[in-house]
Amino acid sequence: MITTDIGIIGAGPVGLFAVFEAGLLKMRCHLIDALPQVGGQLSEIYPQKPIYDIPGYPAINAQNLVEKLMEQISPFKPGFTLGERAETVEKQPDGSYIIRTDDDTEVHCQVIVIAGGLGCFEPRKPDITNLAEFEGKGVAYMVKNPALFRNKRVVLAGGGDSALDWTLFLSEIASEVTLVHRGDTFRGSPDSSEKVAELARGGRINLLLQSTVMSIDGNGHLQQVTVKGRDGTDQQLDTDYLIPLFGLSPKLGPIAGWGVGIDRSAIQVNTFDYATDTERIYAIGDINTYPGKLKLILCGFHEAALMAQSAFRYVYPDQKLSFKYTTVYGVNTF
Amino acid sequence: MITLYVRNETGGREPVEVPTDISLSLMEVLKGYDYPIMATCGGMALCATCHIRVVQGGEQLPPPGDAELDMLDTLPDAGPDSRLACQVRVHENLDGMELCILGNEY
């Protein structure tokens, strides 16, 4: 088990800067992020975009800001668990918490800071009434273990790059592959869409354009999907698997079940110290909400500073906090 | 000032008056009027929580760009009249447009 003072969920800019503010008060941090690298949205979504509202930088490239933050916090030697999603938090008898990830990493901390930004990206689901009933029983939203589909019949739905790529991949191992797409053309990579068209012409896959999966059926396991075609008629397809690939949508994810107050997919905090309604759990950055909230990196930085002042009393209950300027005292590292 | 119409759950049309001298997206305007739009990603065409359908009057709209089309392409319930409100700038050409909000369920 990893032991630290503050467990930070989310290694985006605000989670990273929280390490600095905590470090000034001699609190150690460990960060957990579902993404395989630090930086959150900045690294994952817009690494090359310039940001214009970071004080002191008239313009700074997003990835560059992440690198500067990493440099700024390195004296405080934060720990990182990347590529793992924080699943559960468990309160201990002494008030501290254990955070557990989907890979069973455990982080014991006195305080939890949720800096989860947009949340986790989860698969977007089509509107099929009994879809949930067959999840894990023939309906899958990603291909985790390709061997599962060997010599099976697979229906894929979607028209983006991932639908094209998985169609090409599965056509090699599945016994029968059908791709159902709402449009009549693909916007994905021209190379992949040409390959898919070629497989369809050669009869290696079934390509159903201007078609939609309307309903699914089975007896304990998926057996059949009904597809509405371009002429408006329904056709039944026998299948072992349905893989809807409609992209990813940011969701609060497991955090929604941790008992902290939530309003419209954001965590409610007070503006005194950005604490949630649960003692020792704070939320900072884009994931929180309060009257007047602005989703700005610089606001997240401010929230991190106030959070750290407040969290101090849980980490050092016997010490009195005295506020010190870095210009007077410097940055005393660990 | 232009007037937009938002179709509500009962099929009624709610007029929304919007000044055009502000540089805002349609998502920001609808959010400002307290319509239930989460806009999780803040306007980067990433989350589709501001997915709308243009019921009528969309002829004057500039066509969607690549980022918007890529996202619309992945949505299970997108149609030919679908747009992401965050990618539509408020402009005179929106006057009289009627829309309904679809993105809530994501």
Description:
The complex is a heterodimer of chains A (334) and B (106). Chain A has seven helices and 23 strands. Chain A has helices at residues 13-24, 41-44, 62-73, 161-173, 190-201, 297-315, 326-329; strands at 2-3, 6-9, 29-33, 50-51, 60-61, 79-82, 86-91, 97-101, 106-109, 111-114, 120-123, 153-157, 176-180, 206-208, 212-218, 222-228, 234-238, 241-244, 248-251, 262-263, 266-268, 281-283, 288-289. Chain A has a five-stranded parallel sheet with strand order 6-3-2-10-22, with helices on one face. Chain A has a four-stranded mixed sheet with strand order 1-9-8-7, with no helix packed on it. A four-stranded parallel sheet of chain A has the order 14-13-12-18, with helices on one face. In chain A, β12 (153-157), α4 (161-173) and β13 (176-180) form a beta-alpha-beta unit. Chain A starts with a strand and ends in a 5-residue tail after the last helix. The model of chain A has no long low-confidence stretch (mean pLDDT 94). Chain B has one domain: Ubiquitin-like (UB roll) (Roll), CATH 3.10.20.30. Helix content of chain B is 15%, strand content 24%. Chain B has two helices and five strands. A five-stranded mixed sheet of chain B has the order 2-1-5-3-4. In chain B, a hairpin with a 5-residue loop joins β1 (2-7) and β2 (13-18).
Q: Secondary-structure blueprint of this entry?
A:
The complex is a heterodimer of chains A (334) and B (106).
Chain A: E1 2-3, E2 6-9, H1 13-24, E3 29-33, H2 41-44, E4 50-51, E5 60-61, H3 62-73, E6 79-82, E7 86-91, E8 97-101, E9 106-109, E10 111-114, E11 120-123, E12 153-157, H4 161-173, E13 176-180, H5 190-201, E14 206-208, E15 212-218, E16 222-228, E17 234-238, E18 241-244, E19 248-251, E20 262-263, E21 266-268, E22 281-283, E23 288-289, H6 297-315, H7 326-329
Parallel strand pairs in A: 1-9, 2-3, 2-10, 3-6, 10-22, 12-13, 12-18, 13-14, 21-23
Antiparallel strand pairs in A: 4-5, 7-8, 8-9, 11-19, 15-16, 16-17, 20-21
Helix pairs in contact in A: 1-3, 1-6, 4-5
Chain B: E1 2-7, E2 13-18, H1 26-32, E3 51-56, H2 66-74, E4 82-84, E5 98-101
Parallel strand pairs in B: 1-5
Antiparallel strand pairs in B: 1-2, 3-4, 3-5
